[in-house]
Amino acid sequence: MEAFGWLIAGLGLLLQFVFYTIFDGLLLVIETFFSLLDLSAIAFSYSSTWAGLPSQTIWFMNEIAFPQGLTLLAGAYIIRLTLNLIPTWATRV
Q1: What does the alpha-carbon distance between residue 75 and residue 56 come to, in Å, rounded to a whole number?
Q2: Distance between CA atoms of 74 and 63, rounded to whole angstroms?
Q3: What predicted TM-score, i.e. pTM, was given to this entire model?
Q4: Strands of 32-74, DSSP E
Q5: Burial category of 87 from C-beta neighbours within 10 Å (exposed 0-12, middle 13-18, buried 19 and up)
Q6: Do residues 16 and 24 make contact, with C-beta atoms less than 8 angstroms apart?
Q7: Structural contact between residues 55 and 38, judged by C-beta atoms closer than 8 angstroms
Q8: Quick check: 48 and 70 in contact, CB under 8 A?
């Protein structure tokens, strides 16, 4: 009986490792994809130049990573709106 318990525990650990590896690989691909899309500083520099801001203000906003913060907020909104597309019957337990 004890050997059967060890077998079940080992099988559980194996399944956990397999699912963790797949999930970790998926998150690595997503992270790499979003890191390649870092166009926020360029877009913000152009938009602030068009708005007529002084160059010191533009430099300061780029130094405090304001464009990257806007990118994070936009990404969070996109993820939230994408999650709203999942039907409730699939997520309710």
Answers
A1: 27
A2: 19
A3: 0.43
A4: none
A5: exposed
A6: no
A7: no
A8: no
Secondary structure in 3-state letters for the chain: CHHHHHHHHHHHHHHHHHHHHHHHHHHHHHHHHHHHCCCHHHHHHHHHHHCCCCHHHHHHHHHCCHHHHHHHHHHHHHHHHHHCCCCHHHHCC
Using an 8 Å Cβ cutoff, are 61 and 67 in contact?
A: yes
The pLDDT tens digits along the chain (93 residues) read: 888 889 999 999 999 999 999 988 888 888 888 777 766 777 776 776 667 778 888 788 889 988 788 888 888 988 888 888 888 777 776
Residue 48 pLDDT: 64
Contact 61, 87 (CB under 8 A): no
Helix%, strand%, coil% for the chain, nearest 5: 85, 0, 15
